[in-house]
């Protein structure tokens, strides 16, 4: 019998790739998404779809009451760190409140497995790089705090109600579905790789580099980029670990890439120059943010298929060339 899964935020970037991975295994999948930032076109044929908001407790109950669920994958959230610094209460109320409402509903409807898409933004300005699971939790933003609140809620949901959870913390999802069906379509776009690709393709005038005097090899910030398909694989492997109890994993490349390295990779892959404007540092930007993934590799055998930056860029380029207007194409 196929397993049955609910994916909140399954019309978004990472969630849609997880849905694709579940469908490829022959699982039954239902996407629950309000389409505020997601896209109906990102829900592949074969998946069920319910357009509703997690703020609607009745919609959640109706969804979960509709039969057996083998697990719930929770991706739906506001996710822009900068916006959370401008609207902290909105982020805390939306992400934490909606997540708590979903967790409570899972408990009441007998769901026994829960997978949370969390964030490595829990660690603020880390004391060591790469960041492993033992690093000190000190969220540097209301966004990070909202995810930490959900992690704590899941701990108590397990201790008291037996809801086992897998928590996955990562920084920058990147790339696109290798088959070209799915990709990034944020409005406005805020992720570096698609912005640099657009600059190379002449769709934007330039790419701004904020800060060239950091304590890094080339003076620009280093960030972690992990292919979205590899993230989907990690979510499935973490789910399988829940037979042995709840788990928490950091996900990353363990080395990261600087802003200038991303620009050079895009130039190599596109064969075009990227117009660049050098600018001052942005307040609060750490020099380097890179996550470790030794634990999940050791415990699940997870090995990223897209370990080279050029390979990640190549899939992103293929999507943006084929879908210049995203899912509206």
TrEMBL record:
NAD-dependent epimerase/dehydratase domain boundaries: 6-252
Metabolic or biological pathway: Carbohydrate metabolism; galactose metabolism
Catalysis: reaction(s): UDP-alpha-D-glucose = UDP-alpha-D-galactose
EC number assigned by the record: 5.1.3.2
Cofactor (UniProt): NAD(+)
Record keyword Isomerase present: yes
Keywords of this entry: Carbohydrate metabolism, Isomerase, NAD
Biological processes, Gene Ontology terms: galactose catabolic process via UDP-galactose, Leloir pathway
Major enzyme class: isomerase
Pfam family, one: Epimerase
GO molecular function: UDP-glucose 4-epimerase activity
PANTHER family named in the record: UDP-ARABINOSE 4-EPIMERASE 1, UDP-GLUCOSE 4-EPIMERASE
Quaternary state and interactors: Homodimer.
Family recorded in the similarity comment: Belongs to the NAD(P)-dependent epimerase/dehydratase family.
Official protein name in the record: UDP-glucose 4-epimerase
Species: Limobrevibacterium gyesilva
